[in-house]
Design brief:
Elements: H1 6-93, H2 112-154, H3 160-191, E1 196-199, H4 200-217, E2 221-226, E3 231-234, H5 236-253, E4 259-264, E5 269-273, H6 281-287, H7 305-315, E6 319-323, E7 328-332
Parallel strand pairs: 2-4
Antiparallel strand pairs: 1-3, 4-5, 5-7, 6-7
Domain Histidine kinase: 138-321
Main location: membrane
EC number: 2.7.13.3
Length: 359
């Protein structure tokens, strides 16, 4: 079904009006010519009468109709220009500012009711997203508080059963955090929450610092290599959660004595290289679905790790990629999230990466 165009409809109606006016004018001219022919044919002759008709009839008609036909499309486009400007403003702001509303000052009076309705819809979406975020935060708090109390009570006991219960409590806390993050991402995407400038190096350093003790305990070297200092637009806590999931997966599959390396760059990407077998694109696609589990996955998990990573990257206009030949999982950012990196850093990107699995 083709869309109806206001511009084409106005032009068509103006063309009909112009055509009817031209027909009426031609009818009057035909009547006047007939009378003129009877009165002046004997004195002017046929040639003189033709010149007389051209000067006093045809030329005025052309002077009126031609400018009208030429300027009508331009006038219609100029009249609709404020609508196009408003659409460009909305498109440029989308994904950056929650609370954005379309301004009505420059719009024609006929478009104001429609724009007001759109603004009211945006207000309701913002309110719904805020309620969802608050609800998710309240639920997480209500669930995590008794778990924290239970874990403190288990600290009193030092037997093997207490350790198992504490491990289960930790798994439940991680599950709650993952579910909360999913709810926050859904609300953020629905309301187009504002993004911040995020330095990927800072995110990587923070996540590696949090997981360093676990890597040391597993006798795995956890390293960071900054190929290019990249800055992107996005939600810092969500990007940190995505990278943390990838590193935790790498720590599970990497044998003791080997290394897990996090690369920042080149261009807008984060790469995690480990000592495992790597994932094929088919395996990654399967594991990116919720509740899908790999053979090495934690038995206490819910199968949400890579699904959350894929969802986070999708909300940033990017994707989760696998490079099995290099045993890497990569967070690749889209054009909307990517920011320009310093030019001086681009020369460093030409350096080859270390050999996969090298010590």
């Amino acid at each position: 079904m083709s869309r109806k165009s206001i511009s084409r409809r106005l032009q068509a109606r103006l063309a009909w009006i112009t055509g009817l006016a031209a027909l009426a004018l031609l009818g009057f001219v035909a009547f006047d010519i007939d009378r003129m022919f009877d009165q002046h044919y004997s004195t002017l002759g046929l040639t003189g009468l033709a010149y007389e008709i051209g000067d006093h009839v045809v030329l005025p008609v052309l002077v009126i109709l031609l400018p009208l036909l030429i300027t009508t499309p331009w006038l219609v486009r100029q009249g609709l220009m404020p609508l196009e400007t408003a659409a460009e403003r909305v498109d440029a702001t989308s994904g950056k500012d929650r609370g954005f509303r379309v301004e009505t000052e420059d719009l024609p009076e006929e478009a104001v009711p429609f724009v007001n309705a759109v603004n009211n819809l945006l207000t309701r979406l913002d309110e719904a997203a805020e309620r969802q975020e608050a609800f998710a935060a309240d639920i997480a708090h209500e669930l995590k508080t008794p778990l924290a109390i239970l874990k403190l009570e288990m600290d009193v006991y030092g037997d093997e059963l207490a350790d198992k219960v504490k491990a289960d409590i930790g798994a439940m806390n991680r599950l709650i955090d993952q579910l909360l993050l999913i709810a926050q991402l859904d609300a953020s995407v629905a309301a187009r929450s504002p993004w911040d400038r995020v330095a990927l190096r800072e995110v990587a350093e923070d996540v590696i610092g949090r997981l360093a003790a676990r890597a040391i305990n597993d006798d795995i070297r956890l390293e960071l290599q900054v190929v290019e200092p990249v800055t992107v637009y996005g939600r810092r806590e969500a990007l940190a959660a995505a990278l943390r999931n990838l590193i935790e997966n790498s720590l599970r599959v990497t044998p003791a004595g080997q290394r897990v390396t996090v690369f920042v760059g080149p261009s807008a990407q984060l790469r995690v290289r480990d000592g495992g077998k790597g994932l094929s694109p088919e395996q990654l696609s399967q594991l990116s679905r919720r509740h899908a589990r790999a053979d090495h996955a934690s038995k206490t998990g819910a199968g949400l790790g890579l699904a959350i990573v894929s969802k986070i990257m999708g909300s940033h206009g990017g994707r989760l990629e696998t490079r099995p030949d290099r045993r890497e999982l990569c967070l690749v950012f889209g054009e909307e999230a990517a920011a320009v990196a310093p030019k001086r850093a681009r020369r460093k990107a030409k350096r080859p990466d270390p050999i996969p699995g090298g010590q």
